[in-house]
Amino acid sequence: MKIFGHPWIDSKKFYQVTTKEEINQTPPNSILLLKELKDSIELALYCQKNSLEYAVRVDSIKDAIFANELDAKFIISNPKNTITIQPIAQNYLFDSEILAIIEKEEEIENLAQKGIDGVIFKKEL
User: Fold this and answer.
1) 120 near 99, Cβ under 8 Å?
2) What is the CATH number of the domain that holds 41?
3) 55 - beta bridge partners?
4) Cβ–Cβ under 8 Å, residues 96 and 72
């Protein structure tokens, strides 16, 4: 399980971007963080075309499928959605990893038992 945003774990930083100009200003090897897929499809296509590592938020299985097809490195959603999306991702062998948004580290154990790829603390978004 991957964990982003916990003080004990050194992990890559996510950088919220809403324009191509903001993408160009992020540090090298950073993870670009896009808003909901339906609101950032142009940036997702740009990232895919330019082989940029990015994460995108989704709120449905359909959007998760599209995000995987658009080469998102991480698909981020609330815990309830990730529990629904993860089996689909495993069944279809997604290259994207599924991250659940959490607020407390006590949530990690339950999500690990559900087989979720990873978690990201809300404060990192």
Assistant:
1) yes
2) 3.20.20.70
3) 33, 74
4) yes
